[in-house]
Design brief:
Structural class: alpha+beta
Number of helices: 3
Strand order of the largest sheet: 2-1-3-6
Helix content: 10-25%
Bound molecules: zinc ion
Number of domains: 1
Order of helices and strands: HEEHEEEEEEEH
Length: 140
């Protein structure tokens, strides 16, 4: 019987890339979500003390993407864990920290990434955003 289903792999949407150098070897991995990208990056840094890694929204992604994130649990008081908006340009490399639209700077390792609508929104970020968070094209 002929099958018209496409292979699952071509269906996978991976907007993010993680690249780095681990144990003297170049590495690259795709990631579907910022959390997945960060996990890959942290695993490499764990594996090798001299490793270097960054992640980014693929440069061929058609449009900027706005991510939603807040400080991970336990870092600061629950009341201050508002969800900030992080605009990302295709190809812009992320390492160390990212700056939210409101100017809040969070370390990548200390961000809990959220879906749109989760968490208590940062009012500054919302006020400064001209459009609703754009996550079209990103996997849910
Ligand atoms: Zn904010």
């Amino acid at each position: 019987m002929p099958s018209c289903t496409e292979p699952a792999i071509s269906r996978r949407i991976s907007p993010f890339m993680v690249v780095g150098r681990v144990r003297e070897q170049e590495r690259a991995a795709r990631a579907e979500t910022p959390a997945e990208a960060l996990d890959a990056m942290l695993a490499w840094l764990d594996e090798d003390d001299d490793a270097a890694a960054v992640w980014y929204l693929r440069e061929d992604w058609p449009a900027p993407v706005t991510l939603v994130g807040r400080p991970a649990p336990g870092l600061i008081g629950e009341v201050r864990r508002t969800a900030h908006l992080f605009p990302l340009e295709p190809g812009a490399v992320l390492y160390g920290s990212v700056t939210a639209r409101c100017g809040a700077e969070l370390y990548l390792q200390e961000i809990e990434w959220l879906s749109v609508g989760q968490g208590m929104p940062c009012e500054c970020c919302l006020a400064l955003s001209d459009t609703r968070p754009r996550l079209e094209g990103l996997p849910r």
